[in-house]
């Protein structure tokens, strides 16, 4: 348990909120009474999400933000303060993928994915954490992935690396921020119906069929409900597939045996 945050009356700031999990979360936060600052690299999508919030009677503002720019994130903070006077919840949700055989992925693939998926969280920390620490309350949600908990998806190693890092960063942040009154939630969804395919860059054919868990595909709206519930409960880890938990226990109990079993599953 970390610190719960009541969404009614809170000010929520989200990145990558023009579509998918970010959009659904922005709408869900607003339904629970939050005032929402919606940001996305695509200004039209951010505006569309905000329009949906306003149509349902909520309060929202749209901002175009490139999360690889700390200046853009500072502008997002300024927009939140100018419009609503405070920030209570920050959801770092922007993400991209690069796919290809591990031996074929160039530095550019690694750099782009780590810049968007991981370094954006570092930038957000510098921009928003001083506000939350000063007021001694608030909540941070970092969108990772089941790929950040379990090492599958070897056709997308930069994504796996970035999401493992986000999980670790989130856990460390919970230890740092918890005693200071700020909660942290790490969102680790499995298969979700979103437009993430638009964010994939492919580098040649993959060398093998990637291992993927046979988890139920859920909607972005279902993920948004789980996320909002976690924020209001002060819950750290959110998964969309309960099967993740026993596999984590299996791996932690005997990593050698776990890896042997997974390798055997890949053998022709």
TrEMBL record:
An example of a Pfam family matching this protein is adh_short
Against InterPro entries, the record matches this protein to: KR_dom (IPR057326), NAD(P)-bd_dom_sf (IPR036291), Sc_DH/Rdtase_CS (IPR020904), SDR_fam (IPR002347)
| Superkingdom of this protein's organism | Bacteria
Give the signal peptide range.
none
UniProt keywords (A-Z) are:
Oxidoreductase
Family, similarity comment:
Belongs to the short-chain dehydrogenases/reductases (SDR) family.
UniProt name for this protein: SDR family oxidoreductase
Q: Which organism encodes this protein?
A: Frankia nepalensis
């Amino acid at each position: 348990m970390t610190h719960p945050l009541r969404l009614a009356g809170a000010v929520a700031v989200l990145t990558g909120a023009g579509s998918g999990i970010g959009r659904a979360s922005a709408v869900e936060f607003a339904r629970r009474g939050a005032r929402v600052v919606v940001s996305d690299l695509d200004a039209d999508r951010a505006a569309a999400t905000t329009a949906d919030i306003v149509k349902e009677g909520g309060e929202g503002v749209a901002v175009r933000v490139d999360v690889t720019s700390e200046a853009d994130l500072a502008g997002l903070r300024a927009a939140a303060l100018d419009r609503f006077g405070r920030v209570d919840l920050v959801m770092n949700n922007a993400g991209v993928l690069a796919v290809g055989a591990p031996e074929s992925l160039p530095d550019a693939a690694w750099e782009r994915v780590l810049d968007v998926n991981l370094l954006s969280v570092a930038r957000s920390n510098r921009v928003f954490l001083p506000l939350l620490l000063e007021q001694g309350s608030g909540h941070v949600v970092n969108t990772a992935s089941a790929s950040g908990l379990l090492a599958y998806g070897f056709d997308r190693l930069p994504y796996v690396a970035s999401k493992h890092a986000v999980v670790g960063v989130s856990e460390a942040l919970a230890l740092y921020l918890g005693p200071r009154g700020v909660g942290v939630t790490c969102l680790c969804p499995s298969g979700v119906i979103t437009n993430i395919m638009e964010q994939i860059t492919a580098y040649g054919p993959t060398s093998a069929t990637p291992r993927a868990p046979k988890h139920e595909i859920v909607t972005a709206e279902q993920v948004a409900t789980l996320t909002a519930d976690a924020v209001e409960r002060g819950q750290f880890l959110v998964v969309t597939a309960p099967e993740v938990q026993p596999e984590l226990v299996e791996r932690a109990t005997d990593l050698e045996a776990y890896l042997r079993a997974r390798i055997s599953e890949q053998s022709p």
